[in-house]
Amino acid sequence: MKWNKRQRQPKLREKIEEDPFITDDALASFFDVSVQTIRLDRLEMNIPEVRERIKDVAQKQYDPVKALPEEEVIGDIVDLELDSYAISILDIKEEHAFSRNHIARGHHLFAQANSLAVAVIDDELALTTEAEVSFKRQVYAGDRVIAKARVNKAAQNRTHVNVESFVGQKLVFSGSFHMFREDQVEKGELS
Amino acid sequence: MKWNKRQRQPKLREKIEEDPFITDDALASFFDVSVQTIRLDRLEMNIPEVRERIKDVAQKQYDPVKALPEEEVIGDIVDLELDSYAISILDIKEEHAFSRNHIARGHHLFAQANSLAVAVIDDELALTTEAEVSFKRQVYAGDRVIAKARVNKAAQNRTHVNVESFVGQKLVFSGSFHMFREDQVEKGELS
């Protein structure tokens, strides 16, 4: 069933509030209307486009990254609470993709997720010791990848960070990163 | 027990034949002599230095990479037999390392290993679906990382590639990469 404009617009606002990173394309396919219709809805309701919404989120305060200078994070951090969660965005360009088929190269998705896992740790030094990663769907040049990291404190002072990366609503990558913090390194566990 | 020169030199030649990538430093510590002694031994025996030996290996014929243009491999391939094994070398520079502590960033080791795993596949299209990786020791700017990939054909037409990366004789990284080849992709298993 298609909603009419009066029914659709409040739902649209709700949907965008739930997920500020949702694109017009994704909204159009969710509401089964054209992208143009979504744009008109946004204009009428004065909701900025997704790039502007992302910038808004990015301008909000978030915890400062400790384990590395922020410019060493691959992708742009848009939210972060130390030892809890973090979100970053990476726009896949041609240089991130295989020249033959424009599929994003796995190590860039790995780099975004791994550097986010390092960034979220509340310690001056955080090192990755192990990772299990899974490439769920192909990502292409032009796609915007949103990585979400969640921290799970593990036994023996170790920390696991789980990262899930999405293009639109689709899971494209997931990874579990096992992190060492400075205090273990000083004890020489990782030498 | 330290060998004298007459005892040491044949052993040295043997050691270098076994592992052409071994450095003078590693040889010095193996024979418990100074690096200078190793250099003199090499000069007397007319054995080129490690950089030259690596170039020699690199100039030998190896199978052409199929799954991607060779310049898209991270590191320099020095040997490759399709669907069997491959070796690449990556010199870690400051830009590959954390600015704070000069430790190589994990995603560069991952990128070297993963692109080697793609390169070794005898197919026009090879994609990584999963990987388990382990960062065994810290690698620093200035280190030369030698990655060795071995192919294990797995069940159901899938292929696993195991990669071990070394600095000198020390294992610094290991990874198991699960690869899809074109025929599975065409069947839509990865969509």
Automatic annotation (TrEMBL), chains A, B:
<keyword id="KW-0678">Repressor</keyword>
<keyword id="KW-0275">Fatty acid biosynthesis</keyword>
<dbReference type="InterPro" id="IPR036388">
    <property type="entry name" value="WH-like_DNA-bd_sf"/>
</dbReference>
<protein>
    <recommendedName>
        <fullName>Transcription factor FapR</fullName>
    </recommendedName>
</protein>
<dbReference type="GO" id="GO:0003700">
    <property type="term" value="F:DNA-binding transcription factor activity"/>
</dbReference>
<dbReference type="InterPro" id="IPR006683">
    <property type="entry name" value="Thioestr_dom"/>
</dbReference>
<keyword id="KW-0276">Fatty acid metabolism</keyword>
<keyword id="KW-0444">Lipid biosynthesis</keyword>
<dbReference type="GO" id="GO:0006633">
    <property type="term" value="P:fatty acid biosynthetic process"/>
</dbReference>
<dbReference type="GO" id="GO:0045717">
    <property type="term" value="P:negative regulation of fatty acid biosynthetic process"/>
</dbReference>
<dbReference type="InterPro" id="IPR017275">
    <property type="entry name" value="Transcription_factor_FapR"/>
</dbReference>
<dbReference type="Pfam" id="PF03061">
    <property type="entry name" value="4HBT"/>
</dbReference>
<comment type="function">
    <text>Transcriptional factor involved in regulation of membrane lipid biosynthesis by repressing genes involved in fatty acid and phospholipid metabolism.</text>
</comment>
<keyword id="KW-0804">Transcription</keyword>
<keyword id="KW-0238">DNA-binding</keyword>
<feature type="domain" description="Thioesterase">
    <location>
        <begin position="113"/>
        <end position="166"/>
    </location>
</feature>
<keyword id="KW-0805">Transcription regulation</keyword>
<dbReference type="GO" id="GO:0003677">
    <property type="term" value="F:DNA binding"/>
</dbReference>
<dbReference type="GO" id="GO:0045892">
    <property type="term" value="P:negative regulation of DNA-templated transcription"/>
</dbReference>
<dbReference type="InterPro" id="IPR029069">
    <property type="entry name" value="HotDog_dom_sf"/>
</dbReference>
<keyword id="KW-0443">Lipid metabolism</keyword>
<comment type="similarity">
    <text>Belongs to the FapR family.</text>
</comment>
